[in-house]
Design a protein that fits this description.
Elements (H helix, E strand, L loop, with lengths): L1 H7 L16 H6 L5 H9 L4 H9 L8 H11 L4 E2 L6 H8 L4 E5 L11 E5 L12 H4 L5 H11 L4 E5 L6 H4 L2 H4 L5 E5 L6 H7 L6 E2 L6 E2 L5 E2 L2 H11 L8 H5 L18 H10 L3 H12 L2 H16 L4 H7 L11 H18 L3 H13 L8 H10 L3 H13 L6 H18 L2 H17 L3 H17 L6 H18 L2 H18 L2 H17 L4 H18 L3 H8 L8 H14 L3 H18 L2 H11 L15
Parallel strand pairs: 1-3, 2-3, 4-5, 5-6
Antiparallel strand pairs: 7-8
Helix pairs in contact: 3-14, 5-6, 14-15, 15-16, 19-20, 20-21, 20-22, 21-22, 22-23, 22-24, 23-24, 24-25, 24-26, 25-26, 26-27, 26-28, 27-28, 28-29, 28-30, 29-30, 30-31, 30-32, 31-32
Length: 631
Amino acid sequence: MRDAVLDKLGFGDYVRTSWDLPATDHQKIVQDMAPEPFFGRLVEAGVDLSSWLRDVLHPTHAQPNAAHDALAELCAAGAKVWTVNFDPFIEEAALASDLELDVIAWPRDPQRHTVVGELLKPHGSLGGKFIITPADVLRPLSDAWLARLRADLAGSTHVVFVGYSGRDVDFQNVWREVIDDGQQILWFDRPGSDRDHKLRVLKSLPSVEFPASKAHRDRDGKTTYNPSWDFVEWCRTNRLVTSVDGARQASLLGERNSSTFPDLPQSGPIVQARFAQTLGAVQRAQRLLWTAVRTRATRTTALTLLIRSWLNTSSPTARAVTSAWWAIPSVGRAAACRKRLRHYRLVQLFNAGHHRRVVRLTDGLTRRNQLPDALLGLRWGSQKMLGNVAGVIEEAGTTAREGRSTNSALRCVAAFHWCHSLVWAGRFSELRWAFESYFKPIAMITDSRWMAWADYIESCLMLADSGERDVAQALERLDSAITRFAAEGHRTGLVDVRTVQLTALRLVGDIGRYTAAASFLQYEDRTDPLKPFGRQALILELAQALAYKCDGVDLARRIVEPLCHSIFPVHAAVAYVLCGQWETDEAGSTEYLTSAQRIASDQGFRSIATFCDLLSSQPLAARRGTELVFP
């Protein structure tokens, strides 16, 4: 559905049509992105999706297949069948076989009402309401539906997933609660379909099995896999169904009918511009908005979006406009303008690295109970930079977990600062859970930028957690983040990601790529100076490469030493520990390590504290042999 929407709105270059060719950069951008953010954009624009979804999901020529037949028979026989699909193919398969089913689709009360087989559709069904936008899926599963799911699973010997991603936000953290240790879990999916994620979804449940996927050959001789075929084969082998014979099962491997999707209603340049923003195509969005300005009906909306985009920049004129926010009266119609300009002013201050001013201004708003949710991310980011990592973990973590907000952007920014603070704190088990359960699923339903930050956090985890370090996978995730940030022109994101990429390249000893990547960042700094935090992070990484790989320890220590007095506690701690590692005098080394340990203990930087302990336990001459990994 996601690809159908993108294609119909003129973004066909983002849709992958051949799996035999490498994905283009545009196609990589939408990889792993869910359809919900795009449907959310359509709903925001007032597009009626009901009739369009009916035509897409249930075209006139479409018929149930063998998997639908098997599910209908199992359902009628008393199996508890749940589906997040909207289409009516299971119901139609039951009708064709004269089986009686009661379809219970959200928002209907899910409690059992009949003795016949019941098909549960917690995200709704065609002809009714849907759970389809980010706001919809961010609402936790209701108590009634959760109780029904728990009741349906109680006492079951097998739990079977067929072609299910496991990434529905409203179900993400439910499965471990409702499935017990004694149940056999079978997950039918294609090989390589993110099985590690599925195992983490069901963490602590010992009996998870991914039945071997049978390879098939299509008409062109290419290898294909079909989870529905595997599921039907399992049902037939275990004599669970009688309505599907070999020929009917084999029809699952036939050529699919090509579908021509209907045009989307009301899909003009404003909707297209919003899609471009979701994809990170900033310049494309600007062009579409200027096109919309030329049309009277869309002129006001387009100009509003263009002005907002401009106020988010660091241009001198934009800074001059936003700096006057305090002079606007806080009463009447002017109050709304004052709040908007104050918001953009804080964005500019944050982006310029003025974190103390951001904290001071948001402190005042907090005391007056006037801090809007939209400014929380700026506050958490500045607090984190200035050393309040524990406070950010507590506050941002609470916001990410709680269901009070269905604003995916707010929940996403909360989850990001929560996870990023956990990286610095070295709390990797908690970080892995927070990332898999909250940040990545919410990023997938938000936009390309947050997908890039999710790639970044995942790569940091893969590098920093020495117990599960995977540098090759980290480099893949970093390449994905670079592709997404580069498409948007997000310079801060690119600098952060490329600096972590240097750490990964240092670990694998790829000096050629390291030198090229470092030269690129140094060129960027010369042409347009990096922000203080980004420059300091780069200096610390380059100094480590100089010391660990190029035998330039003395020069590296002289480069790093000024950063012991950084305004950023995380950089001060790293600088002190590196100076302690590279110092040739025993007393001087101990003094540096003591300072590093003090900052690390005060700020909760567990991995830095552990590294200090390791160095302190070693003779002075042996301390230079261990590399620090702190992305």
